[in-house]
Structures are given as C-alpha cells and as structure tokens.
Amino acid sequence: MTTAAMPLFIYGILCAPQFLATLLQEPNETALNVAARITRMLQAVTVKGYEQRSKYFGGGYALGPAAIASEDPEAKIQGFLLTLASTSPRRKLDNFEGEGEAYKSVPVQIYVTISNQLVSADMHLWNGSMGKISLDPWDLAAIMRNGL
What we know:
The protein is built from four helices and eight strands. It is α+β, with helices and mostly antiparallel strands.
C-alpha cells in the first residue's frame, strides 16, 4: 500500500512543466507520458502572506527562487497545487529543494484559483541566510525567455 503525500504548493522553477517533468520522471516513462501524468496533478493556486524573491549567489542570481514570509498584507505567490499519489515523488522534490538546509517544509493555506476554495498544503520556505536573498522579485517568465 502506498501512502499519499500531503499536497504541495509549488512555485518558481517547478512551475515550468518540462522542468517538473524531468524531476518526476520515472524509469522507462516517456516524456509524453510524464507530461500527461503531471498535468492531471496540478491546479492553479495562490498563497497569501509570502513573497517570491531571487536568490543571490555572488556574481549573479540563481535560476531558483526563494519564498519568504512577507510583512506586506497584499503579498502573494502564484503557483500550482501538486497532488501526488505517493511519498516517493515528494521526497524527490524535497531533495531537489534541499529540505532542512536551504528550505523547510511548512504548512500553508492556499486559494484554488478556479473555485477560490481554501486548501491546506505544504510549501518549501527559505531557511537559509537572508543575505542570499535579493530585494528583486523572481520572475519565471523572464527565466523562460532567457532559456531554462
């Protein structure tokens, strides 16, 4: 018997379908099959009270963003609710994010865009040095325009 994982709020680079598919692809699974499988697991959502910022690494910004708690009551991050059938793919995502080192998994309330329903999920929140976080917001569209 497999145990379902808590739904996960994903944002940033994980919202790029081809990137998420690469992380979650199983052995012997075609790219087309993984893309179709992942599409069924995603819902557009928003989490309020957080900001998505660029991570700064010396000479430039990393591709990845960092979610941080915000003092701005209007702050929000748009992303997807990812509902996984088992804990194995969730562990892959936790390992990718560096859970426990750079990020920690925290429970959040998110709003499902299509229904405005409030749902519980986990989110990877920045747990590293704030000195590595830029004041600049992180922009997936700009990353996609410049090549992933």
